[in-house]
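Revision sheet: structure tokens.
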Amino acid sequence: MASIEEMAQPVLDDKHFVQEEEELAEPIDLNKNEEPLPPSIELKPLPFGLKYVFLHNNRETPVTISDKLSEDETQRLVTILER
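Predicted:
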């Protein structure tokens, strides 16, 4: 019969360990001067009462605001957010 200490010890076998990664046949040459592409922005439909505005007139910087703001209020809010 197993003692309490033996039962408390986990059973470790090969399936619990991570195998080392195999080396690639050829190293990958990365261009360090190349800028990564920014992720594309997917605008989703907004719930009633909300709309998108874009900071600095750039479609890559959307902000969600209330659609109940007047044009003047919207412009003032965008100006503050752009700062």
